[in-house]
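Notes, p. 3: input format for complexes.
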Amino acid sequence: MSAAAVLRAEGLRFAWPGATAPCIDIDLLEIEAGEAVFLHGPSGCGKSTLLSLLAGVLVADAGRVTLLGEDWAALSGAARDRRRVAHVGYIFQQFNLLPYLSLLDNVLLPCRFSARRRAQAQRDGAPARAQAQALLERMGLPAALWQRQALQLSVGQQQRVAAARALIGHPEVVIADEPTSALDEDRREAFLDVLVEACAVNRSTLVFVSHDQRIAARFGRHLLLPEINRAGAGEPA
Ligand SMILES: Nc1ncnc2c1ncn2[C@@H]1O[C@H](COP(=O)(O)OP(=O)(O)OP(=O)(O)O)[C@@H](O)[C@H]1O
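Output follows (237 residues plus adenosine-5'-triphosphate):
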C-alpha cells in the first residue's frame, strides 16, 4: 500500500439499486497527494459513479474506499458530509449551486460548513471573503457579478463559480465532473489554467472527468475507466 495515497479503493464493488450487474468493480486504485488525474471512458461507463464513491457521496457495497486513510463506510451520512466539505472540493456535473444565494456566498459555503476550510481560506491573514473574490476574479467573473443570485448566471458562469467554490480553503482533493462542457475554447483554457495551477500550488490531488481529449495533456496521469473497472470492461462505447 502506498503511504502517500490520498484516495484509495480496494476490492471496490458498487451496483445501482435494481441493476443486475455491478457498475463499479475495481481491484485497486491509489491516487497520491498532488497527482492530477484525467479520468475518461465512454458515456455510461461509470465515471460519475466512481467520483461519487471516492468522495463518499455513495458508499461501496463491498471493499474499502478511503480518503486520507479513513474508510467512508465507517462514517454516518452526516459525518461523511462533514468530512467531505473539510477535505474535498467537488465540482458536480450539475454544479449544485444554491440558486438564491449570491455568487460570493455560494463560493463561501465550504467555509461556512467547515472550520478547516475557513481557517485555510484565511491563512494569509485576509478574510475568507478576500480569497473568494480573488478566485472569482481569476475565473473571469468580475466584481459586478458577485452579488447576483446564482440562478441569474449562464451555465458557463455557474461552472466557474462551482470551481471557485471547490478551490476555496485549499482542500486536499478536488474532484471535477466534466467541468468544462459549457465553456468556449478561450474560457476552457483559462479555466484549466486556474484549476490545474491552483491544485499544483496547493498540492491538492485533482481527479478530473472529461470526454475532451484535447485537454488530456495537462494531466500527469490518465485513467481509462474500462481498463481498471472489471464491471465496465468490454462494454460498447
Ligand atoms: N442514480 C442512478 N440510479 C440508477 N442508475 C444510475 C444512476 N446514476 C447512474 N446510473 C447508471 O450507472 C451507469 C454509469 O453512470 P455514470 O453517470 O456513472 O456514467 P458516466 O461514465 O459518468 O457517464 P457520462 O459520461 O455520460 O456522464 C449508467 O448505466 C447509468 O445509467
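The chain has one domain: 35-59+76-228.
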